[in-house]
């Protein structure tokens, strides 16, 4: 049967193709597949829709069942955040010069190469580091690569990670870093890393000590300098996973001893889209042992014999793009567009805009914590530690589960926070609440009123 969206389903086209390759039938092409495993009946799929109008109506019907953060109040974060995206970000990354999954080549795409260089330069300024990679698939891959870099540098096979880190991130790192042992380090009652447990687990086989800052539970790890010192005394690399939206209001990880900084650039002008788009970044000092262990493209500026400036990939022979299976890790360029988006965001925000962003978030987060912790039966288990845009609320004393609370909130068109009871049962019925610069004080009041009614 001819299908309106599959040109090769036209019988005349099929016959012409078969004649060209010298095959008597389509079945003959697959004759090498054993008969007992071949499917001999049509796929169980519905008939093709007869027109584009019908298809559009059908798809709109499906999409209309979805509900978004534009139609509801959103207090859900946990790795993908509802930040405001300036209109200029979509305008620039939608231009035909940029809108492609391919990164572009040195001799053909000078504009792209300059944009990638500017992205690295601006993010490097925030991070106070010399070298910033072309974006990798997401923050999880960037974190995994950071551990693998540490392993290649010092030849060790263990990494110490906090027990309160993002469970999805940890799962991804365990998968990617197969062959490395990831050992969890306990945290104290206030959420800060337990330095005594860290000391007891550091060994001659520790390749890296890894922390998130802010932590997955929302507060800042305040012992970064001491953690870095302990890691270095043991001969390990100190790796910090940092949210770039915090870096204009707190010291960058490099300032308290981080050797490798990594994270996700999603907060920098990239829309949420069913959990994406995401793009990881990796940054270090400009030292040979680090630079030669980047699996990603690095972009540089140079001056030719005529005094003209150009932009190109630096040391491309490091990458699988050039040496294929001999590369230290696999390289992909499918998230290059997000470098363009993040560059536009950083350029339009500027240093002052990034500072205002951070201060705005902290102000609203403080307000939300005070407002919500004032509800009967609700408490802040990590109130001693300073939070950024996420914080934990505990509901044990209310007699209700987080699942029940979130279900009731959804009926009021509110996306509640992330239910921590599955991955952190020791925290009881706790909710990870997220507040961004898009959150209005009135939205927080609405959440408080809704919770008061539910509880």
Commentary on this structure:
With 455 residues, this protein is α/β, with parallel strands linked by helices. It folds into three domains: 7-58, no CATH class; 73-83 and 352-454, Aspartate Aminotransferase, domain 1 (Alpha-Beta Complex), CATH 3.90.1150; 87-346, Aspartate Aminotransferase, domain 2. The protein is 36% helix and 14% strand. It has helices at 11-21, 26-29, 52-63, 87-93, 110-127, 139-154, 167-176, 195-201, 224-233, 288-291, 320-323, 336-373, 402-411, 441-454; strands at 73-74, 131-132, 158-162, 181-185, 206-213, 237-242, 260-264, 280-284, 299-303, 309-313, 390-394, 414-415, 418-419, 430-434. The strands form four sheets. The chain has a seven-stranded mixed β-sheet, with helices on both faces. A three-stranded antiparallel β-sheet has the order 11-14-13, covered by helices on one side. β5, α9 (224-233) and β6 (237-242) form a beta-alpha-beta unit. α5 runs parallel beside α12 and α6 packs across α7 (167-176). It is globular. The mean pLDDT is 94.
* Domain tally: 3
Strand order of the largest sheet: 2-8-7-6-5-3-4
The whole-angstrom Rg is 26 Å
Helix content: 25-40%
Q: Can you write the helix and strand succession as a string?
A: HHHEHHEHEHEHEHEEEHEEHHEHEEEH
The overall strand count is 14
Beta fraction of the residues? 5-15%
CATH homologous superfamily of the largest domain - what is it? Type I PLP-dependent aspartate aminotransferase-like (Major domain)
């Amino acid at each position: 049967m001819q299908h309106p969206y599959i040109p090769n389903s036209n019988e005349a086209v099929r016959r012409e193709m078969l004649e060209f390759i010298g095959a008597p039938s389509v079945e003959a092409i697959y004759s090498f597949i054993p008969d007992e495993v071949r499917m001999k009946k049509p796929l169980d799929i519905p008939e093709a829709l007869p027109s584009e109008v019908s298809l559009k109506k059908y798809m709109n019907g499906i999409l209309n069942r979805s509900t978004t953060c534009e139609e509801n109040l959103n207090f859900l974060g946990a790795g993908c955040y509802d930040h405001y995206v300036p209109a200029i970000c979509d305008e620039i990354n939608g231009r035909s010069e940029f809108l492609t999954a391919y990164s572009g080549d040195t001799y053909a795409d000078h504009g792209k190469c300059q944009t990638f260089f500017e992205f690295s330069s601006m993010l490097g300024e925030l991070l106070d580091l010399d070298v910033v990679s072309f974006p990798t698939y997401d923050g999880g891959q960037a974190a995994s690569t950071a551990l693998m870099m540490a392993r290649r540098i010092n030849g060790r096979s263990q990494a110490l990670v906090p027990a309160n880190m993002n469970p999805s991130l940890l799962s991804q790192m365990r998968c990617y870093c197969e062959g490395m042992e990831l050992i969890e380090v306990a945290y104290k009652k206030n959420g800060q890393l337990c330095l005594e447990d860290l000391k007891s687990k550091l060994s001659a086989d520790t390749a890296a000590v890894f922390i998130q800052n802010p932590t997955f539970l929302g507060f800042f790890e305040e012992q970064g300098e001491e953690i870095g010192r302990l890691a270095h005394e043991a001969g390990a690399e100190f790796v910090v996973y940092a949210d770039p939206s915090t870096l204009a209001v707190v010291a960058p990880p490099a300032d308290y001893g981080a050797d490798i900084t990594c994270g996700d650039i999603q907060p920098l002008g990239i829309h949420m889209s069913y959990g994406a788009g995401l793009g990881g970044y990796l940054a270090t000092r400009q030292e040979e042992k680090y630079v030669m262990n980047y699996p990603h493209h690095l972009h540089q500026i140079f001056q030719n014999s005529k005094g003209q400036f150009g932009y190109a990939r630096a040391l491309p022979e490091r990458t699988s793009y050039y040496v294929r299976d001999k590369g230290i890790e696999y390289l992909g360029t499918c998230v290059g567009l997000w470098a363009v988006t993040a560059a536009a965001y950083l350029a339009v925000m500027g240093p002052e805009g990034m500072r205002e962003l951070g201060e705005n978030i902290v102000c609203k987060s403080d307000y939300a914590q005070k407002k919500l912790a004032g509800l009967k039966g609700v408490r802040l288990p990590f109130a001693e530690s300073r939070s950024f845009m996420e914080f934990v609320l505990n509901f044990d004393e209310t007699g209700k589960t987080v699942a029940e609370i979130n279900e009731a909130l959804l009926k009021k068109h509110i996306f509640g926070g992330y239910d921590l009871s599955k991955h952190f049962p020791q925290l009881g019925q706790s909710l990870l609440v997220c507040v961004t610069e898009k959150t209005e004080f009135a939205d927080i009041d609405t959440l408080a009123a809704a919770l008061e009614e539910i509880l």
